[in-house]
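Progress report, Aim 2. The chain analyzed during this reporting quarter is listed below.
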Amino acid sequence: DDAVIKLVKIGENNQIIINKEKALESFHASLYSSFGILSDKGKQEELDRYLPVIAVTTEDGYYIYAYFEYEGEEEHSYVTRKWTEKLPYYYEDNDFVYGFTLGENITLLDKNGTLDSGDQQTVYRLNYKDMNIKFPAYFAAPNHSKDHFLLDPDKFELARKGTIQSLIEQSMAYYTSHHNKIASEYGITYNFALPPIQDEQWLPYLDAPGFFVVFQGYPYGAGEVYNRFASSGAKVTKDKVFYLEQVKWYLIYHRSGCDHRKEDGILFDNQPYLTMEECVRQGAYGCPVCCPNDIHAPEYDPYDKSSGREK
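Predicted structure tokens for the chain:
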């Protein structure tokens, strides 16, 4: 929990910023303190070798922190710990590549031009609930399933969380197994392998930024070793943030749960904002449904029938 407290930082504009370096620093400090080695650099380095992999989740992807080998001069091999590039939460079927997030927003690559009846690939960014409104013909076609997960909130959550969990688990399993080669160079004979992980260790932490750690093989007591998977999530709730929508020439800000947000399928960005005041500083008008005030965009009507919603 110490790490995840540092994971989410509020920036100058009250934007939610992921600070994985601070989270990592806080995690190590807490772990070293627990083992009484805060001032012992050698013991810290020894303990670190029993941390094969750490994962951090952000709004639209995750990072892996692990050991990597590389060749230096004169064919010498070196080992370093570093972060991977951001890895997306993606799922693919015959028609689309879906890019999930920790919320309802998705990025959709239409591989075959299915949605606009064209031949070109197109990328859409929108709230998944607007798919049936924006592209009703696709879901009404006889050859398309009426049970598609984009049409059902429960199925969407299962698909979203299942995809995120599976991808992170696969990555952590790979780097945990790969760590055996690294560990052997330090004389460690323990067989590193990702331990079984229960759903309750994953699912509560897939709605907000999270921190996941494998701590394995570290000796203690009479021949015992640690074998733990630890998970923790940030306390940023989706119903307390705001998102900006690009509508024509202006921006509209909505609460996360607003039924009228992103009805044109165009996101200004995926960045959540913590306050209405910060949204206003970005030049956005308030949604008259979820954020009523005295200043609204003169052309904006959330109940406009052309959007597919009725009064």
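Residues 238-307 form one domain. The radius of gyration is 23 Å. These observations will guide the mutagenesis work planned for the next reporting period.
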